[in-house]
Amino acid sequence: MRGMSFAVVAMLGGVTLALSPAWSGEPKLASQERPRKIYGHYMGCFCCGTGAIQWHATSGLAVMDAPREICEGKPLERKLGAWAARSHGGSYRNFGLAPYGKQLPLEECADREIRRAMRIGMDGFTFDAWAGGAGAMKLLDLMFRICEEKDYPFELTITPDATCIDEKMEELKPYTGSKWEKSVKWLLDKHGQSPKLARRDGKPLIFGYGAHWAWVGYLWEVAGKKLGPDARKDALQREVDRLRTCEEGWKLLWPAYKRMEEEIGQPIYWEMDLSNGGFFHGVQHWGGLKGSRDDAMLQATRIAAQDFPVIGQFLWEGRVPEMAKIVVDAGKEWSHPMKLQYENYGYFQAVSPGLDWVRGDWKFAREIPSTLIQQITWNDYHETTNLSPGYNTRYAYYDVMGEFIRWWKTGNEPVADHDKVYLFSQKYAHNTKMFPFSAKTRADNEIEVLTILPKPARLRMPGRKTKEGEDEWEAPAGMSFKRFPLAPGPVAVELRRGGKVELRLDCPEPVSDRPFRQDTGKVAVCTEDRRHWEEDFGKDVPMFQYSEYGDTDGDGLPNWFEMLWFGKFGDLSTATVAKPDDDPDGDGQTNLQEWRNQTDPTDPASK
Fold it and tell me: Cα–Cα distance between 562 and 539 in angstroms, integer?
């Protein structure tokens, strides 16, 4: 996904709305609604354990977009500190959770992706068309074959993405029409007869991301016919913008898609992605808009809901509860946006307070109800929206989302036959100095402990107290949570019954007071991590536990310090290469002192 700057309103607005949705109606009976299905938005360039994402995970400073002389230079010669002061440290913070250091076979990885998704109740993947280009198409072909051969109860489709479709790519050359039409034609030509193609009401299901751009292209045709072949481009732009901002133009949403169906050759179950930031993105002339953008979006929703079978959003934006009610009252499906966090270092970063967005969104989805969901996302590690297990979140977000999916599908609140404990934290505390990289924004937060227990228990976080001063608490049976201030130090939780510790969970990432680069996403760990890892990779493969602020060799230097300055960044086997008492740059300060003072241990001029 690209160009998401408009979504900041969505994410920040969701803080309040997701906590207390404006809709409080009773859920509809299952017999009155369609089967509830959820599809993970899938980035075909990021199949976990292989390809691009595995390369990024193991590429050292290259993943930070460091120039070659920095990547290949010797520690005391490459001027890393001077470069870092002008950099945010690249745009990747999370990677697919797999054994470190080697490319795994693509088919093995594709099969694992599907099994991981099915394990938590996902119904399919919708491929971002075409992030990864021809490689994404080949991966989709492979997943279709796997699902067909193994008869997995799993469906596949696409989400046309205007920012990622190259209509000149060889694979699309045999097809006519716009790039959206070509992409759908390719899918139906290759897999239209597959029993694993996602369908709704017998029609191929196609999800939306920036779905308005196909309509905007249609508006240019409408404007051209109205103004004639000699019209100037600025006049055409004004007419297109007028149509984009008034009911006359909104009434052309469905005709634009009907025209696409005619070109494709069959009816499609389209999801129309409506968000006011995207819907009005790039508008230069606002003469057609009456009232606020939010008001306009509500009216556009009323018009779209007359014809589109499903309407949703990619990220929470605007007056979502009102939009959703308009859609379901029209007898159509609402596809509710699901998200935990969003990091795009070219635009903005936002992260849920604890799991508030997750709880609020699922509550809303159960009650409105939302019956068809495009999960944002399965594996966009680059923007840390991934539900798929990752370096930073391990299986925690993944596993707890499985609980919410089952609750949404069955109506039954989570229950457990054993103690399930989840820790969600951040890598560094508020108001801390960052070195050596520069910071753009912050997303300060709290620590959350979430539990799903078969019976009540006493819990405590050693060395931590709640805002109310509690150092321990009683957690009931079922799902509950407790929050703690984000203060520096180890992050762990103990569960006790009868005065005895029955379970202890330690987060590999302590909260630091000396962050080295901006990283607003969550870190997480849960008691289910090892079980899931063994299901994915077997008992003989050691579980990979990534940690930047941990101290692998216990010498007082955090892993990041040793990997960044003297080893290979990201490779924990090099987190032991520096000695705390050495003074490699000869400035009279040991490595341990340089870390404590937040100075460059390879540059004697760093103060």
Answer: 30
Q: Given 3.40.50.300, 3.20.20.80, 3.30.450.20, 3.90.180.10, which CATH number is that of 5-14+37-49+96-213+254-388? A: 3.20.20.80
Q: Is 7 exposed, middle or buried (0-12, 13-18, 19+ CB in 10 A)?
A: buried
Pairing of strands 155-160, 199-200: unpaired
pTM of the model: 0.93
C-alpha span between 441 and 345 (Å, rounded): 9
Contact yes or no for 117/154 (Cβ under 8 A): yes
CB atoms within 10 A of CB 510: 21
> Which amino acid makes up residue 57?
A
Predicted confidence (pLDDT) at residue 7 exceeds the cutoff of 60 = no
Contact 350, 11 (CB under 8 A): yes
| 132 neighbors 139 (Cβ within 8 angstroms) | yes
Distance CA 39, CA 312 (A): 13
* CA-derived radius of gyration, the chain: 25
Given a contact cutoff of 8 angstroms between Cβ atoms, the answer to whether 567 and 575 are in contact is yes
Could you report how far apart the first and last alpha carbons of the chain are, in Å? 40
Residue with tokens 């992260």, as numbered in its chain: 351
Average pLDDT over residues 334-348: 86
Integer CA distances (angstroms), 421 to 361, 507, 509, in order: 21, 11, 16
Domain edges within the chain: 5-14+37-49+96-213+254-388, 423-597
- Residue 523 tokens, joined: 């870190």
pLDDT tens digits for range 110-120: 999 999 999 99
Report the SS3 class of residue 147: helix
Q: Given the structure tokens 């999801």, which residue do they identify? A: 271
